[in-house]
């Protein structure tokens, strides 16, 4: 079973530096991870040891079901985040990694890379999202499930290597649609309502059928691979109690770290650090 102690420590450091970025030395190498999500775009900056230096994010409606649908909007937001961080740190960022949902590289990998490079960053690597998340999580024989806004991506790991990666269209957007219908509110209001932890106990039974759909995606992806633990990440994994319901249906351990919405962005940035270190097994 994966020990979350170091993971949670790094995630807390990342969350803390959103408002309190760390100082950097002139000429210090910095490495970025750009995450284009359905609800938010996140830019993470790390030092050469993988320690969080800065992080900025912004609400965005430029990606749907894992695909970039507003390219100019995505470029503008990414450039704005980069400019804010450069202003805070007093340096110019020059390299980053990005990530996409599994099995979508032929459809959208180029768009995500191009968004990053439109800001002046050199894109050094493109990962699938759950595999990027596992660069932080570090499971050897489990499944990492990234429940994003539009899709659920699953990467199954054996001896630390991804042996299967899948992505299906069910995520936080679908939770919000169900909640909006049940409570007679607009989609936008449902999105805001869903993000408030005080409402999670009320929301959980309303969206349980959608959680069960996510569970079925995980179950199909893991079938026949002897997966002994499932780790949830992504913005939708912030919902309190989601891991308990999925575990009850799957019958295997299901866990999540603190701040699961920041796992994939941090993992992407760790991938940028890894690429800079050269060949790896």
UniProtKB/TrEMBL annotation:
Superkingdom of origin organism: Bacteria
CDD domains named among the record's database cross-references: ASKHA_NBD_EutJ
Pfam families: PilM_2
Listed InterPro entries: ATPase_NBD, EutJ, FtsA/MreB, PilM
Coiled coil: none
NCBIfam families: EutJ, PRK15080.1
UniProt protein name: Putative ethanolamine utilization protein EutJ
The organism's taxonomic lineage, starting at the top: Bacteria, Bacillati, Actinomycetota, Coriobacteriia, Coriobacteriales
């Amino acid at each position: 079973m994966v020990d979350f102690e170091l993971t949670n420590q790094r995630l807390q450091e990342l969350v803390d530096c959103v408002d309190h970025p760390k100082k950097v030395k002139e000429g210090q190498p910095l490495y970025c991870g750009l995450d284009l999500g359905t609800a938010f775009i996140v830019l993470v900056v790390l030092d050469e040891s993988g320690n969080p230096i800065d992080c900025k994010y912004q609400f965005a409606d430029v990606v749907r079901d894992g695909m970039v649908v507003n390219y100019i909007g995505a470029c503008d937001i990414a450039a704005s985040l980069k400019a804010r961080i450069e202003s805070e740190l007093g340096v110019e960022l020059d390299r980053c990694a990005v990530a996409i949902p599994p099995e979508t590289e032929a459809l959208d990998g180029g768009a995500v890379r191009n968004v990053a490079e439109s800001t002046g960053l050199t894109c050094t690597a493109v990962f699938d999202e759950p595999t990027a998340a596992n660069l932080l999580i570090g499971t050897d024989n489990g499944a990492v499930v990234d429940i994003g806004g539009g899709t659920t991506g699953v990467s199954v790991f054996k001896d630390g290597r991804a042996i299967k990666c899948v992505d299906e269209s069910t995520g936080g957007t679908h939770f919000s649609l169900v909640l909006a219908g049940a409570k007679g509110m607009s989609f936008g209001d449902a999105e805001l309502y869903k993000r408030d932890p005080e409402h999670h106990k009320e929301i959980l039974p309303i969206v349980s059928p959608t959680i069960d759909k996510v569970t079925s995606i995980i179950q199909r992806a893991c079938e026949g691979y002897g997966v002994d633990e499932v780790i949830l990440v992504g913005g939708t994994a912030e919902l309190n109690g989601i891991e308990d319901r999925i575990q009850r249906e799957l019958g295997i351990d299901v866990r999540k770290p603190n701040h699961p919405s920041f796992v994939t962005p941090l993992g992407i940035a760790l991938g940028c650090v890894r690429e800079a270190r050269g060949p790896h097994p």
